[in-house]
Specification:
By secondary structure, this protein is of the alpha+beta class. Helix content is about 15%, strand content about 55%. The protein has 2 domains: about 1-30; about 40-175, AOC barrel-like, CATH 2.40.350. It is built from 1 helix and 8 strands.
Length: about 180
């Protein structure tokens, strides 16, 4: 009787564990944010050069204005590459948080506009962008991107160079086929 009872308790415990695992997986799956219908993902890098100007503040950090421009290279899931010339202006009021605007221009002259926010312009720091529209084929563009600066090198007279390697773009073009 004791062995049967122990086996029954073990089966109930095992069944409860399986039910809990299935429930946890179902909850995780329902909470997971998969891609929206028609959303595409591109991966790539942004190499940029530009200028930085600083202004002392009452705190330990200066206010910083940065202007950057350079090549944005993206690859889709099939390996097709596309390139843009990227321009950005950003401002950090001395808090270590950056906000700004960017425009990516393709070889046809069509533009994708975005708003930027993130950490200070330094190696290892994260920046995110939200597309706000565009011109030509990007007129109905929505989506976002994230990147981390792999390196940022400062030179004389406020010259700065940097590169991201983990640029991930998630976007939709309204009216376009997925």
């Amino acid at each position: 009787m004791r062995a049967t009872l122990s086996r029954g308790v073990a089966l109930v415990a095992a069944g409860s564990a399986v039910a809990a695992a299935v429930t946890a997986i179902a909850i995780a799956a329902s909470n997971a944010q998969g891609p929206a219908p028609g959303e595409r993902t591109l991966r790539g890098s942004w190499s940029a050069t530009g200028h930085v100007q600083t202004l002392p503040t009452e705190g330990d950090r200066p206010a910083v204005i940065a202007q950057l421009s350079g090549a944005v290279v993206l690859v889709d899931e099939l390996g097709a590459r596309t390139g843009f010339h990227g321009d950005a202006f950003s401002f950090d009021g001395g808090t270590g948080a950056t906000t700004g605007r960017a425009v990516w221009t393709d070889t046809r002259g069509d533009r994708a506009f975005s708003m930027l926010h993130g950490d200070a312009l330094q190696a290892g720091r994260h920046v995110a962008g939200t597309f706000t529209g565009g011109t030509g084929r990007y007129a109905s563009l929505t989506g976002s991107y994230d990147m981390t600066w792999q390196y940022v090198v400062s030179g004389e007279d406020g010259v700065v160079q940097g590169r991201t390697t983990d640029l991930v773009v998630r976007y939709q073009l309204k009216g376009a086929q997925p």
